[in-house]
Give the backbone structure.
Amino acid sequence: MFSVLHKEEGAHEDGIWSCAWGRTQPEKPAEEETEKDPEASREFVIKDDKPEQAPVDFIVTGGLDDLVKVWDIREDNTLKLRHQLKGHSLGVVSVAVSSDGKTIASSSLDSSLCFWDSQSGQQQHLLSFGPVDLWTVAFSPCDKYVISGSNEGKISMYSVETGKVEQVLDAQNGKFTLSIAYSPDGKYIASGAIDGIITIFDVAAGKVAQTLEGHAMPVRSLCFSPNSQMLLTASDDGHMKLYDVAHSDVAGTLSGHASWVLCVSFSEDGKHFASSSSDCSVKIWDFAERKCMHTFNDHSDQAWGVKYSPGNDKVISVSEDKSLNLYNCPPNIVV
């Protein structure tokens, strides 16, 4: 059933604003060798009998102590600090991990964007911008780009390899961009603004495809469903909304938190999603039924970030209370 697997108290020395999961795949074994038996007209195959290794999951957090931290998960679900990444001079507001688990991106209140090697902890690029000129960061599905919104409604796309700007999209609203997401199929980028307006960009066309006006207050988080057909948004108005991306229709409005909804995250199978709030709670929702399945009340201050694991069975959350929580969320439980 739903349970708290581990609570890492004092994970940072200050509030934690962002978290992300990473997954690295083990190196594939060498190709099987085929040799010919000289004594007979037949071939035989030499196989490597080493058992296939499982992928390795890890956690990344960003705190107001200016640090990005990388955590390994032990077999007993306790956490071991792999790296403490120093490069920002002010609090870290957003972290993201590439789908191959090799690269970490982080953004800070000092208006800098850092790229890191997740294995070595080495800084790959450090990009500096004007005051409050970037906020949330996200990777493209192909891992070649990192996107970030600005205080003027523009979305910039940076090359992971070079750190250079490859494309700029403009919402043409001049509003501070608080949240950003890239659709898994690579076709769309969604951004949420401080005035509650959501903009969906057509990436190939390089222009605004839709503007959604379902919220009246800041949209602090949004994410696409795994099939890219739905967009889930979270706002200071205390509501979450589900939009049909193709038709711009509101497919559902969800309420349950007593205050601002700060973060939302879909499970990879699309059956569930998680939300965190300034009411200090983390909620797990059934997507099909649009119902809350479980509420975790294990933070003592606002829960800034929440993320589903790649395996659909765990969730992490981070909070102003400086803690990082790891939850068990069985994927097959129904409402």
